[in-house]
Amino acid sequence: xxxxxxxxxxxxxxxxxxxxxxxxxxxxxxxxxxxxxxxxxxxxxxxxxxxxxxxxxxxxxxxxxxxxxxxxxxxxxxxxxxxxxxxxxxxxxxxxxxxxxxxxxxxxxxxxxxxxxxxxxxxxxxxxxxxxxxxxxxxxxxxxxxxxxxxxxxxxxxxxxxxxxxxxxxxxxxxxxxxxxxxxxxxxxxxxxxxxxxxxxxxxxxxxxxxxxxxxxxxxxxxxxxxxxxxxxxxxxxxxxxxxxxxxxxxxxxxxxxxxxxxxxxxxxxxxxxxxxxxxxxxxxxxxxxxxxxxxxxxxxxxxxxxxxxxxxxxxxxxxxxxxxxxxxxxxx
Length: 333
Hints:
The chain is α+β, with helices and mostly antiparallel strands. The protein is built from 12 helices and 10 strands. The strands form 2 sheets. The protein has a 5-stranded antiparallel beta sheet. Strands 3-4-5-6-7 form a 5-stranded antiparallel beta sheet. Helix 4 packs antiparallel against helix 5 and helix 6 packs across helix 12 (301-332).
């Protein structure tokens, strides 16, 4: 004889089952910054992605059971492609995709004996940040529009509390990444355990990129960003960069200039004594100009050339490093 179960009890049991399954997984964060939308999720796997591209300016992030949200991701890609092909590419929006996901998950939750243990976010980067769209869709088909940031997963409430305290409008990419890592670490004061690039999956929707705005951050680019947001780093502490980081001339090359200035300022010291002690051997100025002449009081042309030669290669060495970092980020896309 079959037993009767009220609809309320059946829905409650399904919801509890789905929440417990989602809580066992890792959380994820989606946050806006000045140039787009940032996606961050703990994921040591390099093959199984929690964050993926759906369409030109739309991305997808999920937590829960991988096989279930991978089914939703593929179905969303097909839906977006068919809509863009039948109508126009501008008709594919995050709002329409979120509504389609809500209908699909709602049907599965109601009709299937086992609901999907997933929670997804659909985001779209517009031309301006005020028009960005972020939608959160839960396992039962409920959809909510989020502003600024959203946390999903089992620890969503605790992470959202940290994001609320630290989030601000028009943050830079490194600032948004620091807030996201602080939320995932559960540290509201900014202190966090050591997190390496291999433990994170990070991607952005960069509104400055034409056509396809989705880009993954991996390799050197991600390691550089993590170094910038580290609590003990010079960038994180606000310390001024040293001469090596700014491309200034070495301290040894600056001594002749400073010693000549101090020699001219001192009373009773001959102008030629400093020049004789600081000019390199073989200089055209040394020994040819009188000690009291104007040329002896000015800086020799040879010393300026030596300083510019020393500073020039240092500045040139920084440009290839920056280009390689950007190229690594480009390769990751």
